[in-house]
Amino acid sequence: MRRLAAAACLGAALVVLPASAAAQDAQDEAKHPTLGLGDRLQLEFLARVQLDLRRGEDDDERDLDIGRRRVGIRGRFTRALAWEADAEVEADRPWRDAYLEYRQSRAVRIRAGRFKLPFSLDHTTSSANLDFIDRSLAATRLAPGRDQGVMGHGRVWSDRLKYEIGAFGGGTSAARITVRPFGTGKSPLGPLAGAVAVTRGAAGERLVEGVWVNGARRRTGVELRWQPGPLTLTTEYLRMTAERRGQGIAGDDLVPLVMRGWYVSGTWRLRPTVGGRRARVDLAGRLDGLMLGEADAGLDSSFSPRTPIVPARRERAVTLGLTWYATGHVKVQFNAVRERAGQLPAGQGGAWMPMARLQISL
Amino acid sequence: MRTVVTVRVGVACGVLLLAVPAPVPAQTADDLFDARALQEIRVFVNERDLHQLRTRYTENTYYPADIHWGDVRVRNAGIRSRGKGSRNGVKLGLHIDFDHYVARQRFLGLTSIDLDNLWQDPSMLREYTAMALFVRMGQPAPRESFARVYINGAYQGVYAIVETVNTSFLMRTLGRDDGFLFEYHWIDRYEFTDLGSDLAALEARFERRTQGSAARSAAYAPMAEMIRAINALPDDQWRSGVEPYVDLRQFLTHVAIEQFLSELDGLTGYEGLNNFYVYRGHGSTRHQFLPWDRDNAFQDAQSSVFHRADRNVLLRRALAFDDLRAFYLGVLERCATVAASDRWLERVIAAAAAVIADAAGKDPLKPYDAGARDAAVRHLVEFGRVRPAVVHGAVTDARAAQARRRN
What we know:
The structure holds 2 protein chains of 2 kinds.
Chain A: H1 2-21, E1 34-37, E2 41-55, E3 62-77, E4 81-88, E5 95-103, E6 109-116, H2 121-124, H3 137-142, E7 146-156, E8 161-168, E9 172-179, E10 192-208, E11 211-226, E12 231-244, E13 254-270, E14 273-274, E15 277-278, E16 280-292, E17 313-325, E18 330-340, E19 352-361
Antiparallel strand pairs in A: 1-2, 2-3, 2-19, 3-4, 4-5, 5-6, 6-7, 7-8, 8-9, 9-10, 10-11, 11-12, 12-13, 13-16, 14-15, 16-17, 17-18, 18-19
Chain B: H1 2-19, H2 29-32, E1 39-45, H3 47-55, E2 63-69, E3 72-81, E4 94-97, E5 112-116, H4 126-136, E6 144-151, E7 154-163, H5 167-174, E8 180-184, H6 199-205, E9 206-208, H7 216-232, H8 235-242, H9 248-260, E10 276-280, E11 287-291, H10 313-318, H11 322-340, H12 344-361, H13 370-406
Parallel strand pairs in B: 1-6
Antiparallel strand pairs in B: 1-2, 2-3, 3-4, 4-5, 5-7, 6-7, 8-9, 8-10, 10-11
């Protein structure tokens, strides 16, 4: 029944969307309902629904997930004060971003409230704007998420350098420097940007990847993006170490848990003409990996949450995707993901798993 | 000169031989289950996990632990709380899986053991003694011994080390482990009455312990057919219809030993079936019964050898056949003879009581005082002395009654 409903939803969307496309050029960015009071006060109302269709736990079952329904508001008062608040409908912890920002200049901005820590390009990109339905393994498992804090950020050196530095809950600090060394000019290297990011913080006892950790947690990340014309190439390498103070069976300190993740992705933007109008379709591919632990202990590895040395585990994923921007408000994505996890012998990967997403933004 | 050198070399070799330690005999599971000695097991677990284990003792959550037995060390075994009525957060009953976190890890060839906290038995001897009689009667039963148990260096008291009924046990006792092993779980009063065609009712009571990936029907359909045959077949078809599903003589042997032991909570338990496993070999439809948890044995030396026999459908219908009834009485008689021979049962009880006496006296967590323990041990010894004669008498009377009915 769910399968039927899912197919009906996606089918209906595909039939209806070209008609709505007639009202608006498909290349347009989403324009949200806006309320303005002169040039001093502006309020923008945001709403987004995502319907995902993907394989369920049983091979012969598919799940329709209508989990993401978000509403939000963002705005500004004069040029100095901006804010954003958005929440997930019917979620246990509904609030996502909720912050206030003071804008002294383009070079100096102070943000306070709850928002994503500045770490990982994939993680900090809104899910509405991702090239793939799911984030990379590295961003999903190694990035820190949202927290309450204060962050200074801005752009200097003719926008060639962007900085973000902040202090967050639990004594966590984070910083990211993004550089466009060749500016934004028209040279082939112009659209090249690189960034390094670090976070430092302490966490109490908790299970991470089935292993108890406690103490300082450090993350470092390197990212690179090059966008010559219709092509976008992105890569990231993230590393996290988490101390395991007092986590041994005898209460002793254990070797820190180390996790590393990376991905390389490419997107090719097509502009086919459909019915006399230029559509926008992105073809994308991503290869990503995650490595956990240190020791290559083979099949006799201990999976104890207090194992003295965390045995090496590797995960790989290949994702192929197609994104169709039907209108500025409607996006349809198709992905096929092939994952290989754990200690499967080389060549024994999992099956290709198809999934689809319909996203409607207002 | 040559003589001197030879002497020096000889002395050096002699010193070298003395310096090499004598080979330590390899320790085996038989050593662990040697009840003539009090074993010592040390469990090391993270204090946070231990706190969780004590406060959430009703859950079956595993925690990593190191286990020491003599010179044998096992790292990162999985331990969890165990037991039904005996389960508590003070004197923890523990199930130890050696391969829970480390694939194929073994302890003396064993994949798991239970540390029975002996919480409900002030004598601390019932479980061990009952299993000893099952073994003495040639029945497959878990091996048991006693141990001082320490957790993080703190003495927890006397425990019974109990061999887990699993594939290792099946291999040791039956020589094969390729069939279906089920653990019976008490959920309500059930005595082999027909449960209908819904396999879920069986599945709720008989938990699969092997062949977990096999189809549900492959696991439970033969058992459902067994129960249907036990209940539905008329007397003249009953033997031929039931015997393909139940080894009736093995079943009667099991029940007879329980009756000799005056077991309150077994196949003729006060609340129906309880405390047993069932095994069915690969490619076979025949089920065999295996004993488990005998904390409620040795209730009353004067109890009937047909106690609640009319309630259990399988037992009632089996005993309606003269040859099976005679077989049943024969097993009871053999139990009595074995127990009385050289006062075997009394000696087993006395020897085990002596092994644990000092450690049990110092058991800091047992929920009964020394007086209660002494009285319980005396009760057991008295049971061992009196029960054989009582059963012999009961068997004689039953045979006479059977002969009268025949005539």
